[in-house]
């Protein structure tokens, strides 16, 4: 039914449980449609960087199966120059927004995967802004995919006048069996959720350790253990591996452990875990390692994998059994929050693998101790969801006012959401389209509040010295901060020292520190509270230069000596890269680049500002390494391949990379990297 509607060119909202196959159908449709056209562009928006590689690989597999590798280009990052006439862009909302700001691109197809994120507080507003930006110059067939009916009407306020055809099913290809597990005395008491009978089996261990429960119930099967935090994942994985008597004689596990040792650090606990068929998996792990773990789970080499909420973000990692104990959303210095129902559905949807299992088991461990005990209640808790933009206007009206006045705390973790909303409202006012937001039926503000808000928006616009187009280029940076920085730069006489050098230039780190301190002064950049500007700039410089993660980590391990466990150092480095370098700093440097470029143009200064933020976001500045990442390779795989090839050799497409592989030019790469390549090639 979905395929029939797609092929008629309808705009579609499709709702189906995790692993129902909706994404597979949609990707096949998009690839086939583009191939049959004279030329067409498709935008596929995914919520996280972790999903870019997975979806791009799925697209490559479809292209490969049709033997048309040279006919369709797949892009995961913006690039200089032209794209093929038939191109599929697989990007997060951040990357797609930057692509759109460059101009000259319009789309024939728009596919929003995991579309329920329109209501997510941290991602929803920018997704909203990006979708509207797409629609300014494009009239695409719109395909919206999500796992819950709660969100099916959430896009009505964005796609006004679009008559969506709904394709909805609640049926899952694999049934879920909910089993309560209680450790009591010397026994485990198992009961089918919602039924009053129970089975009692001997524990065969002491205490109530989650690792022991998993090991007792999951032996001989594939198992996922959901934990709330990265350190909890590492700890539970270690506890499970301690229960395995000895290393498993499996060359694939030995190869994987060797790869982690070479890529991260020899003392990282994942190395020993893998030798015993145990792993942990969370978003900040390097892409190559996540891909490797997912492959090992699917191949049956790893039977125990401990995960965070990456499971809820569309990562395809199913297993026979899923174990859960007190799932919550941890918030520093604040009470824990309930996991969203859709996220919970996505997580439990990983129990049971389609085409292998008729059913999957969800083990609910020690439920009476859970902070929130209503996740599996039968009563319908459904409520209509609306985009985060409208929900914020309704529920956090005064905070939006504060952001418009520039008074919202720049160190608050929600600053990006509120300043993105403020910038969007100002831009709509300047283009006389404020009704796009305030006129939505999802906005429940009183008329007096709307008038007050309109007045605040007008006042903010009158204070604006930066052009609205320039403001739009940095949607998450408040206009007040941009204004202050713009006026400061405008007063400068000499701009040479304001230009950020290329990452490979002598003095790059010192120049970066100087610029970032200026961004800190004007509230453009605010580092995470545990990291200093010097530390972030040091990590950022090495990251953007393309240095290996192992090298960055080893320097920090030596710096701290024995003060911190290697796992803690690894988490801190990865956290600083993902949160500060690739997000906060990249956004701030994009803003700086745009403002400085405008001033250089206005003043007629013959200097050019480098888009250093692009290097920060992907972790590379060498053109060939950037090209390899754009093809869809993980940064680690791209770096290794880049190091193996002669400097004079250019690689711009997957087809060129396949030729090099077939010629034996990549024989010396690590087995894990080779398997990542083959995953794309096949």
Description:
The protein is of the alpha/beta class and 682 residues long. The chain has 27 helices and 17 strands. The strands form 3 sheets. An 8-stranded mixed beta sheet has the order 10-9-8-17-14-11-13-12, with helices on both faces. A hairpin with a 5-residue loop joins strand 9 and strand 10. The longest helix has 38 residues, at 566-603. It is globular and about 75 Å long. The two termini are 28 Å apart. The mean pLDDT is 90.
| Ends distance | 28 Å
Protein structure class: alpha/beta
Number of strands: 17
Instruction: State the helicity in percent bands.
Output: 40-55%
| Low-confidence runs | none
Q: Any key phrases for this structure?
A:
682 residues; alpha/beta; 8-stranded mixed beta sheet
In short, what is this structure?
It contains 27 helices and 17 strands. The protein is of the alpha/beta class and 682 residues long.
